[in-house]
Amino acid sequence: MIALTASLVKMPRRPLGSRNLGTLLRDPWLELNARLTDAVARRGFADIRPALSVVFQHVRDEGSRITEIADRAQLTKQTVVYLVNDLERLGYLERIPDPSDGRAKLVRPTDRGHAAVAEARRVAEEIERDWTELLGPSAMAELRELLEQLHDVLWPNR
Prior knowledge:
By secondary structure, the protein is mainly α. 61% of the residues lie in helices and 9% in strands.
């Protein structure tokens, strides 16, 4: 099925590395991220670098603390502060007082940040449709189901 339909979708860059489980999980993610970044840039958000996008994945709409973002993204607090500073300067995030602790700050998306996230979600859906076309609906559904099962076993209650 893949050989027959691969011409319908722009072929990804050739992955590096072996075909062990780690690279088989990583390489599709790298391709998805590259396509997502390129498409979102073409749709009006060219100033979001891939390194900055990791913050968006972990910021809650109502706001998140830097330490929470760092923990969820598996980055140092200093790295997240650097990335948040850039996103704030670019108008995607803002810092607000934490209502539960007056000494702390929350980071939350601005209207521009919400627009960028919404566009990224649209692009992710397009990529999933493309990959469904490549693999076929049944195989894609099975892949998604297996990945969801693995996720739920590794991180129960999340």
